[in-house]
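Hi R.,

Here are the chain sequences for the assembly we discussed:
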Amino acid sequence: MSSSLLKIREPLTPWARVWLMVCAFALPFLAWCVVSYLPFVWHPLVLVENAGDSSVPGTYDYVTEGQRVELEVFELRNQELARAGKRLAEGERVNPIYLPAPHQVARAFYTAFTTAPERRGDYWLHESLLHSCRIIFWGFFYAALIGIPLGVVCGTFPLLSQLTEPFVDFVRYMPAPVFGALAVAILGLADAPKITIIFIGTFFPMVLVVANTTRQVDLALMHAAQTLGARSWQVLRHVVVPAAMPNLYRDMRIQIGCAWTYLVVAELIGEKSGISAFIYQQQRYRNFDNVYASIVIIGSIGLVSDQLLAFAARFLFPWESKSVGLLAQLKRMRRSAPGPLPGAAEVVGAGQ
Amino acid sequence: MMTATEPLQLPSYLEQTDPVKSYFQDLKARPTVLDIEHLGKDFHSAKGPITALSDVSFSVHKKEFVSVIGPSGCGKSTLIRILAGLETPTRGAVSLDGKSVLGPGAERGMVFQGYTLFPWLNVTENVMFGPRMRGVNKAEARKKAGEWLEIVGLSGFADHYPDQLSGGMKQRVAIARSLANEPRILLMDEPFGALDAQTRAGMQSHLIRIWDSVDLTVLFITHDLDEAVHLADRIVVLAAHPGRIAQVIEVPVPRPRDRSQLLSGAFLATKNRLETLIYGRST
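And here is the predicted structure of the full complex:
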């Protein structure tokens, strides 16, 4: 059976693709539901609803109402109470606090946006999110603004590559967060050091990735352009850049993911801000449902923005065969049918 | 009486009919466009320098069609890349209309074996590329591209992307793209090498028609003997290790050419001579 399902590199039908994509999300979610709602699967703790007679002394007399205690501890406490002949404790088996159930996270997801911040001067969740997106945008924008042109010229001219890339490679190995203290000292506590961390974290790998992608542009295209009279800078502008563009775009989609990785570090240096500050605070209050909600939000923003960028690529790079619409593909199938060389007659005409 | 299994009695490839003789007299009276003098090229390898080309000299006259043929390793690709300016010679010189060739330039158009159309430009924009790089304005370049597409018979595909064309069509666009620069000479590096036999035959007839209809000088690299004889006025036969000229042959097949001549005595005699030179076989 597996041999009929697992076919090597066999393209999937559109319906299969949709269903498998749904499953990709549904299966982990289902696993989460199973662990959360089926009490016999995990539920290692007991949430004490009624501590019984708390006047009975014992090794486990610290068990009080509202506590989450290990099942074993709960049972030992009840043995103590039973020996004393007093009222037994009651409780419900639960999961640890760090694993809230889907409905709790869903509720937190809703309430996080609808509840006012607990302290005056704190930000609403959507404000924090917006702030995070702004940090990402500017950090990534400056990195791309300098990194893409630098990478493209490095990938085109070996002289510049050898002059730049060894140093860039060296800095790339330094974790961006180590520059945190420095950035705060130089740039203060506000957004500037955070943007700088994102910049440092994404710029250096970006130069190398862009240079490598640029180097993969077919040399024959550049030679063809040269024999058509293009000078060096024209080859760069009119051949290298457009030829590398679709792949550079894909690179950038991956690089934005890296920017999100550095966001958490960046936002916790200096004055804590954004979604990371929210997560940090909720984790201290042990509101893990809010923490999960925030993580899901970050994931969703990433997924949605990436899908939007992928969708936009169809319009930005219409020549890419994968992006050519269904209609054009049908036309192509019809055209590739064998037939006489069209236009042969005109050539004879041109000769007369 | 000859039987079907005996080899044909062929005339000598040196025999020329009167029209062919006067054709070559006329051809040689024309000025030369391309002059190659004592050209040599060494490559460096781990075992020391390797001579790819040694003392190659010949000239191409205006409106002449020259084929270059030879076994693999004879340096025919190196030769055409030097002529295009994509490689520099170790020895000797190349001149176009008396001026030294020092790098790539629009006056020497080149059609490559692989497909080198720019995939992000449609067919018209590809043909416009050369004129645009040389500063011709957009409207003028577009008009010119339209004319060349008409000549190669692809007016109906002006808005297509290269990815939507067959291999033969791509090469016709590549020819139009080079010709839009109105080059002094068109260098063709096994341009039909990647095509199937049927498409290839069509492309050869097509190229002959274009060559007939416009004022064009061609230097055509191939490893296909039929193709060389069918297309060329003269064939430069190279030998390998090191790459050098074995012989320059005047093709005695009269023009205009068509595929029925592939079985003529003059054609077969020339082909036989090429086989002798390249494979060392003699009949």
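The two ends of chain B are 19 Å apart (CA to CA). Chain B has a mean pLDDT of 92.

Let me know if anything looks off.

Best,
T.
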